[in-house]
Amino acid sequence: GKTESTSQKRKSDLLRQPLGKRKRVSFGGHLSPELFDKSLPPNSPLKRGAIP
């Protein structure tokens, strides 16, 4: 019983992950991270990426 509950929770986590990733990808496309990387130093993009 306990094992099934854990597996179910894991499945929900996996389903939730793709959603978050999709949102991130959409955001990245809108912000054009490549342009930011070229105009700003590597430190700036890294810091921005750390904060969601």
UniProtKB/TrEMBL annotation:
GO terms for cellular component: chromosome; nucleus. GO terms for biological process: regulation of chromosome segregation; regulation of mitotic nuclear division. Its main location: nucleus. It comes from the Eukaryota. Pfam families: PP1_bind (PF15276). Residues 21-52 form the PP1-binding domain. Keywords: Cell cycle, Isopeptide bond, Nucleus, Phosphoprotein, Ubl conjugation. This is KI67 protein. The lineage of its organism: Eukaryota, Metazoa, Chordata, Craniata, Vertebrata. The gene is Mki67_1.
